[in-house]
Amino acid sequence: MIDFQGTIEAIYNDLKQTPEKGIVASYIPELSKQSSESLGIHIQHIDGRTFQIGDWNVPFSIQSISKVLALSKAIVFENKRIWERMDVEPSGNPFNHLSLLEMEDGIPRNPLINAGAIVVADILITHLENPKMDFLNYVREITGDDSIDYNLQVAASEQQTGFRNHAAANLLKSFGNLNNDVDVVLDFYFHQCALEMDCSQLAKAFFLFANKGICINDNKHISSSQAKRINAIMLTCGFYDEAGEFAFEVGLPGKSGVGGGIVALLPNNFVISTWAPGLNARGNSLLGMQALEQFTTKTNRSIF
Ligand code: GLN
Predict the structure, then answer these.
(1) Which residue stretches of 40-92 are H helix?
(2) Which residue(s) pair with 262 in the sheet?
(3) Smallest Cα–Cα separation from 70: which of 200, 228, 185?
(4) 159 lines ligand 1 (CB under 6 A)
(5) Of 64, 72, 91, 285, which residue is the catalytic one?
(6) Phi then psi for 238, rounded to 5 degrees?
(7) 78, 213 in Cβ contact below 8 A?
(8) 132 is catalytic
């Protein structure tokens, strides 16, 4: 039996000593209030056990991690048709990169870069009656936690400074790959990114991807085939131009956000989430990546 608690305690104690903690994101001004000293780790095992250490119960902005949750909702509405509007190839570029979108006629490389996530937001707006409320309710339901909410200051902060996202949405619109108004789609996207969760809630939210589409409350939301495909997309595209590095170092499907969160999972085993706001040069949590590398190495648990 693996000593999960002992393992994450050892990793936590090691990383707390590291002087190099990365740089907190500041291009969304509200996020710059976070401290690079924060560090939390949480494991939600498929058998119900949980393990945690550090700042695992402090809520943070999940940012791009929300793109996976939005995709899991959109895929139910559109199923395979969703892939007519975006691809499933890694981009090898930063999350907010634009020139590929122009070269590839407004078809985003994948749903986890910003342009792809903006198309997913467009799909949700088309299908949901009250998009922001309905999406929030979906996240609350799969997590089994009604206290989850949007941080409206973070959403407003990105609304004011999200110039590249405005550019991406307008480019998509010009190619005919957005059906709704640019401002309506971006308002939804900024709220989705401003969802706030702690490590424990995040691990619960991703339980369905480790459990063949069945959430922690035992309800089936996506098929096991859809869960398989979403995990594949996380593995190949979840860390932008560092997806190869994450697969190489950690070996699990996962997703990062510029709020410093990472969530990763081993299908049929566990979901592990980390939060450490200092980012590396590619916009992924520096300590979070190190924690997960140590975790899969010490426990010998990865998809490989
Ligand atoms: N809301 C952020 C953005 O669009 C999300 C980026 C991220 O977390 N990588 O820039």
Answers:
(1) 66-78
(2) 256, 274
(3) 185
(4) no
(5) 64
(6) -70, -15
(7) no
(8) no
Structure tokens at 61: 């902005």
Which of 24, 30, 114, 119 for a ligand 1 pocket mutation test, highest count of atoms within 8 Å of Cβ?
A: 114
Provide φ and ψ at 223, rounded to 5°: -75, 165
Token couple for 245: 């590095």
Distance of alpha carbon 235 from alpha carbon 146, whole angstroms: 29
| Residue pair 108/164 in contact by the 8 Å Cβ criterion | no
Q: At what angle do helices 182-193 and 114-127 cross, to 10 degrees?
A: 110
Cβ of 41 less than 6 Å from ligand 1? no
Q: Please indicate whether residue 257, judged by its CB atom, sits closer than 6 Å to ligand 1.
A: yes
Residue of the CA atom closest to atom 4 of ligand 1: 114
Sign, CA torsion 200/204/205/207: positive
**Phi, psi at 43, each rounded to 5°:** -120, 130
Which residues are within 8 A (CB) of 278 and not within 5 positions of it... i.e. 6 or more apart? 21, 22, 23, 24, 36, 260, 285, 286, 287
From ligand 1's centre to the CA of 245, what distance in Å? Answer: 19
Q: What is the pLDDT along the chain (304 residues), one digit of tens a residue?
A: 899 999 999 999 999 999 999 999 999 999 999 999 999 999 999 999 999 999 999 999 999 999 999 999 999 999 999 999 999 999 888 888 898 999 999 999 999 999 999 999 999 999 999 999 999 999 999 999 999 999 999 999 999 999 999 999 999 999 999 999 999 999 999 999 999 999 999 999 999 999 999 999 999 999 999 999 999 999 999 998 999 999 999 999 999 999 999 999 999 999 999 999 999 999 999 999 999 999 999 999 999 9
